[in-house]
Amino acid sequence: MIDVEAVLETRWFSKTDKRVRQDVIDAAAQGRTVPPIIVYRATDNAELFGLLDGVNRTFAYWLAGLPKIRAYEILTPPTT
Q1: Which residues make Cβ contacts (< 8 Å) with residue 80, sequence separation at least 6?
Q2: Is residue 79's pLDDT more than 80?
C-alpha cells in the first residue's frame, strides 16, 4: 500500500474530470478489491512514485478521498 498523494500524477487530477467509470469509483469507495496499480520510484524524490499503469484506479481512489492504494513497485525505472 502506498499513499495516493505520493503518486505524481495526482498533482494534475481535476475534480471535474469524469474519465473514470462510476463502478471503479464505487468499488474503491466501498472497500472492494481493485487491482493494484503499477508504479516506479521517482528518481529525484524517493518518497514519490511515477505511474505506469492504473491512472483510472488512482483517480477513483483520489476522488473517493481514500488515502492508500495497493501498488506493485517496479524496482528499476523504465528507460527510454
Answers
A1: none
A2: no
Give 32-47 pLDDT, tens digit per residue: 888 999 999 988 888 9
CA nearest 27: which of 71, 61, 62?
A: 61
Q: Which of 56, 54, 55, 65 is nearest to 21 (CA)?
A: 56
Task: Please give the helix or strand (H or E) that residue 50 lies within, else none.
Answer: strand 49-53
pLDDT at 13 > cutoff 80: no
- Cα separation, 58 vs 4, in Å, equals 7
**Cell numbers placing 38:** 503499477
Alpha helices for 6-76 (secondary structure H): 22-29, 55-64
**The model scores a pTM over 0.85:** no
Rounded CA separation 65/80 (Å): 33
